[in-house]
Amino acid sequence: MFSYALVCALVFPLAWTICNGPKIAFMQVAAGCIALAWLGLKKDVFILFKLSPFIFAGILYALAAYVSNEPRDTYPYQAAMVLLFYGLPTGLCLRRLVAMGSGRAVAWALMSFAIVMSIVGLIILKNPEVQRITAESTGGFQRTNGSDTEVIVYLRYFSITNVIIGIVPFTLFALAAFPAALTERSIFLKLFICGTAIIAAYTNVQIATRTTLMAAALSSVLVMVLAFRSMSWRRLLGFGAFMLVLAGAGIAYVTHKSDRFYYLMDRFAAMGSDSRLGIWSEAIKILQRTPDGHGIRQLQSHEWAHNLFLDVGLTDGWIAIVAMVLLYGGAFFLAWRCVRTANFFDSGANVIMFGWLMASFVASMILPPQLAFLATMHISLGFFAPYRVPALAAKPEWPEMRQPARMAY
Question: Is the CB of residue 175 less than 8 Å from the CB of residue 157?
Answer without folding.
Answer: no
